[in-house]
Amino acid sequence: MAGFALAFLLRKTYVRLQLSVAKHRSLAGHSRMARRFASWVPFYEYDESRFFGVDSAPAQIIAARRAGFARLAALFAARFKSTVERTSQLAASVSDLEFTSRYRVPFQFSGHVRRHLRSGSFVQSSSGVTVTDLDGNRFYDLTGSYGVNVFGYDFYKECIERGSERVRDLGPVLGAYHPVTAHNVRRLLEISGLDEVSFHMSGTEAVMQAVRLARYHTRRSHLVRFCGAYHGWWGDVQPGVGNPVPARETYTLKDMDPASLKVLRTRRDIACVLVNPLQALHPNAGAAGDSTLIDSARKAHFDRDTYAEWLKQLREVCTRRGIALIFDEVFVGFRLGLGGAQEYFGVRADMVTYGKTVAGGLPVGVLCGTHRLMRRFRDDRPADICFARGTFNSHPYVMGAMYEFLIKLDSEAVRALYRGLDENWNERARTLNERLAAAKLPLRVANLSSIWTLYYPQASGYNWMLQYYLRAAGLALSWVGTGRLIFSLNYTEEDFAAVADRIVSAAEEMQRDGWWWSDAQLTNKAIKRRVLKELIQARWASDAAQRPATSPMGSTNSPRIK
User: Measured between alpha carbons, how far is 499 from 475 in angstroms, rounded to an integer?
Assistant: First the structure.
C-alpha cells in the first residue's frame, strides 16, 4: 500500500513538474504570480522636473525635450481642439475612454501627458484609407478598427447599405432566419472546410462556445492557451492581470516549445488547445502596447515556415490525444488569405472562430466545426445538453451585411488583393526599414502580412512619445499606439508611400527633440533597475503612510518621483 502511494505521489510530482517546465519564465506565463505582482505595484508619477530627464540626460537634451513637448502640446490644442473637447466632455461618463486615456503611456508619465498632450477619440467620416476628425483633419488610418477593416471602409459601408436594403422587408425579426442565412452558412463551411456553423454576437462569445463544446464532448475540464495570446476578455482565457477571479481550469503554456507538446501528450484533463495565429509575430509575449514601453526590450519577428511546422506538430499531438484544436481567427480571419490561417499555414483545425470583418462591418461571432464537436446534445442522454444561445444571434441585418461581404469576397477585385499579398507587404516593410536605417533612426518595423508593429533597437525610456509625433504627422493610431499598426489591403503604393514618409519624418522630428538621446550607461537593464528601485521606494512610502502616525503629518497626495 505504501509503495502504491509513493508511486502515485511520484507520478503526480512528475506530471506537475512537466507542467512547470512548459510554462514561460516570464510573468505572462505565470498568471498567479502576475496577479500578485500587479496587486503589489504602487502608483507613483514623475513631477514635471523629473518627467523630461528620467534617463539622466544632459541639460541641453532636457531643454530640447521640453521645447518639443510644448510644441506638440500647442499643436494638439490648436489642430484637434473640437475633437479633444468632445472627448473630454464624454470621458467621465464612458469607462472605455477613461481607461484608454490613462493607459496610452507608462503610468509614471500618464498624468503629465493627459494634462498637456490630450488625444481625441472622435471621427466623423472615412473614405478610402483615411478618416477625418471633428476638426477636419484627415488621417491615414492605421487602426484597422481592431481588425474589422480588411478591405477598406468604403467596402464595408457598401456591405452594410446593401445588406440593410436586402433584409428591410423582414426588419429586426429575431429567432427566425432570413433566407440569406442559408447562403452565408454554405460559404462559411466552404471557406472553413468544416461541417457546421453557429452564429454569435462577438468573437469572445464564439470562442466561449468553442471551448464549452470541446469540454462537453471530451468530458475533460481544462483548456490550453499559449503565453501572451488573446482570445477575448472572458475569464478562462484571461487568467492573469485584468481578471478579478483566477482561472482554475486553464493551462498557459509556452508557444513553439517541445515542453508544451509533452504536457499535451501526458495529461488526461485537456479538452482543447486555443491558437491565435497573431502570436506568430511575437510568440510568448502579450499584445504590444505603448503603456508598458518603459524600455526598448519589445521585439517582434515572424517566420512563417517555422510557425507552420509548430502547428503541424500541435495538430499531430491533438489528433492522437483526442484534444480539440481551435483556431481563433477572430482577428486575422480573411486578412492572411481567403481560407484564413488554415490555408495560410497548411494546417486544419477542428473548430475555427471568425468575427469582426465577416459581417461586413457589423458585430458578429462565428464558430465553424466538425459534426462531432458542434452537436449540443446526446442521442442516448436527452437531458444532457450543451446550451448556448443569444438573443441577437443571426440578426437579419447582420446576416444581410454578411451576405454582401461573402458575395464581394468572390469578386475579382477582392481576389486580386490576395495575389502576392505576403510578398507585397514584406517588401513594403523591408523598404521602410532600409529608410529608417539609412536615416540612422532607432526604429524598425516587423510584420505579419499587413499587421505591423514598431520596435526600438536602441535603449530608451521615451519610445512611447513616438505615437504623438505620428498623430501630429497625420496618422491615426489605436489606443495602443505604436504596438500595432493595421493596414487595410486596399492601400495603394501611393498611399503607403505617404504613410512611410510620415513615419520617417515623425521619427526624425522626435530624434531632433532629444527623446532618443543615449549614452553607454543607458541600457535596457539599467532602465529596468531604475524602475524597480522607484517601485520599491514608492511601495515603501505607501506602506509607511498607512502605518499609525506618531505625529500629525497629513499629506494624501500621490507619490511623486523627483
Answer: 7
Helix ranges (H only) for 247-291 are 258-266
Separation CA 385–CA 216 (nearest Å): 8
99, 289 Cβ separation under 8 angstroms: no
For residue 542, count CB atoms less than 10 angstroms from its CB and return exposed for 0-12, middle for 13-18, buried for 19 or more. Answer: middle
Task: Read off the pLDDT of each residue in 65-72 and give the average, rounded to a whole number.
Answer: 97
Condensed to tens digits (0 to 9), the pLDDT of residues 350-359 reads 999 999 899 9
SS3 447: strand
Average pLDDT over residues 327-335: 95
Which residue is it, cell 522630428? 509
On average, the pLDDT of the chain sits at: 93
- Mean pLDDT, residues 320-334 taken together: 96
CA distance 368 to 279: 21
Q: Counting beta carbons within 10 angstroms of the beta carbon of residue 234, is it exposed (0 to 12), middle (13 to 18) or buried (19 or more)?
A: middle
Q: Between the CA of residue 382 and those of 213, 262, 376, 486, what are the distances in Å?
A: 16, 37, 11, 47
Nearest to 406 by CA among 126, 109, 162: 162
Is this prediction's pTM over 0.85? yes
For residues 488 and 414, the answer to whether their CB atoms sit within 8 Å is: no
Taking the C-alpha atoms of residue 203 and residue 501, their distance in angstroms, rounded to an integer, is 35
Q: Residue written as cell 540626460?
A: 57
E-state strands within 133-215: 138-141, 196-200
Nearest to 117 by CA among 463, 462, 454, 465: 465
| β strands within 431-493, DSSP E | 444-448, 451-455, 475-476, 485-486
Would you tell me how many other CB atoms lie within 10 Å of the CB of residue 407?
18
Reported as a single tens digit per residue, the pLDDT across 298-308 is 999 999 999 99
Q: What is the pLDDT of residue 554?
A: 42
410: CB partners within 8 A, 6+ apart = none
Say if CB 193 and CB 342 are below 8 A apart: yes
| Amino acid (one-letter) located at 100 | T
